[in-house]
């Protein structure tokens, strides 16, 4: 190996991979979360049917199953654990599988594990806990596949689709508030438990701007 290749084949701590978003988690990361080294509040869920960038192909794809990820900063794609000042990972000793596997000069190891054994909310919440039931109730009421159909119906001028879309947005909004208030769940956990708010997903994914009434009743 010549010197130039050696330079390329090692992490130079440029931070580029961390600035492209947090990693998706895998079953191998379960202990990092259960031990509290990666808190649940630092996670969010991309729900089945959402569009997301595939970190391997770079293409925007429709998810065929959910993905639990480490959150990005509110104002950018940069992983929330990335520290600009020293270009370092705040949880380096406990960084997830994808981060430990990534070699930007050779994506083969990442490709091998990327779509395998992804962690789900159920893996973290258990099968029959009240939180798992709550997640399922929300998923049953407003799956992304249904949202997609309603957005298309609304775009083609179907008033009942527009009405139902508004109802589901209101449901999502109130469900989140209810879980936080009555369930005494920290608002920081909602994006993990229920995915990100529907109105944001609809705007990002379908380009539909949501106008909210003063009473927080969603309407589109
Ligand atoms: S967890 Fe750490 S290594 Fe992984 S993307 Fe975030 S900052 Fe980078």
Secondary-structure blueprint of this entry?
Elements lengths: L2 H6 L7 H4 L10 H5 L8 E4 L4 E3 L6 E3 L4 E4 L11 E2 L4 E2 L7 H5 L6 H7 L6 H5 L4 H12 L2 H12 L3 H23 L8 H4 L4 H9 L4 E2 L5 E2 L1
Antiparallel strand pairs: 1-4, 2-3, 5-6, 7-8
Helix pairs in contact: 8-9
The chain binds iron/sulfur cluster (SF4).
Iron/sulfur cluster binds next to loops.
Give a summary of the structure in a few sentences:
With 220 residues, the chain is mainly alpha-helical. 42% of the residues lie in helices and 10% in strands. The protein starts with a helix and ends with a strand.
State the domain count.
Answer: 2
Bound small molecules, deduplicated: iron/sulfur cluster
Helix content bin: 40-55%
Strands side by side in the biggest sheet: 1-4
Secondary structure class reads: mainly alpha
Q: Helix tally?
A: 11
Major sheet, described briefly?
A: 2 strands, antiparallel
Gross morphology is globular
What is the gyration radius calculated from CA atoms? 19 Å
Order of helices and strands: HHHEEEEEEHHHHHHHHEE
- What is the mean predicted local confidence, pLDDT? 90
Spatial separation of the terminal alpha carbons: 59 Å
Q: What is the β-strand count? A: 8
Strand content: 5-15%
Q: Which parts are unreliable, with pLDDT below 50 for 5 consecutive residues or more? A: 1-6, 216-220
